[in-house]
Specification:
Layout: E1 16-22, E2 25-28, E3 35-38, E4 41-47, H1 53-64, E5 69-73, E6 82-85, H2 88-107, E7 116-121, E8 140-143, E9 149-152, E10 179-180
Length: 181
């Protein structure tokens, strides 16, 4: 849960605004190379300061229509230094940074409503899942004789003679060297 910041006009907690971008990519801008967000959707989400991280993720997921991961830009940083928000503590620290930047802006007589710049993406698959290396296409097994089986390999996998390669579907009728088991 996040500590409330009181609005100077009323004694009610001021809501937090997230400037949320999703479905696009961060790309370098031509000609200066500065990073920018391109494509996708951008929406503003206003939430109560007492929101928990879990509740915030639910609201963000509802907005996007899918579960999301939350990464935010700190007020003094560029897009190359996004911070992953994964807990209530991370959320509280992020809001504290924005409150500090808003106070500094107010002290220089440029009061503004700073929005937390949030970038949403699909969650990554769990790390404990092992990815199997890609397997070659299975060989096609066809009966040749009663006690033998013949394996016809795709042309790209085995082609011993210099004649032109057969087209798709020609393996069953092709005469020539074959692997037998």
């Amino acid at each position: 849960m996040v500590a409330p910041s009181l609005n100077s006009h009323t004694l009610t907690p001021k809501p937090i605004k997230f400037f949320c971008s999703y479905g696009g990519r961060i790309l370098p801008r031509y000609p200066d190379g500065k990073l920018r967000y391109h494509g996708g959707e951008t929406r503003v989400l206003s939430v109560d300061r007492s929101i928990s991280f879990a509740e915030l993720l639910v609201k963000l997921g509802e907005m996007c229509g899918t579960p999301v991961c939350l990464r935010c830009q700190l007020p003094t940083e560029d897009l190359d230094a996004l911070v992953s928000i994964t807990s209530d503590e991370d959320l509280a620290n992020l809001i504290e940074e924005y409150d500090r930047a808003a106070a500094a802006a107010a002290a220089t007589s440029s009061p503004s409503s700073l929005k937390i710049r949030a970038f949403l993406s699909a969650p990554k698959p769990p790390k404990n899942r092992r990815r199997l290396p890609p397997q070659p296409p299975p060989a096609v097994m066809t009966p040749r004789r009663q006690n033998h089986r013949s394996i016809h390999l795709p042309a790209a996998a085995y082609h011993p003679d210099p004649s032109p390669r057969p087209g798709p579907g020609a393996f069953a009728t092709r005469q020539g060297p074959q692997c037998t088991l």
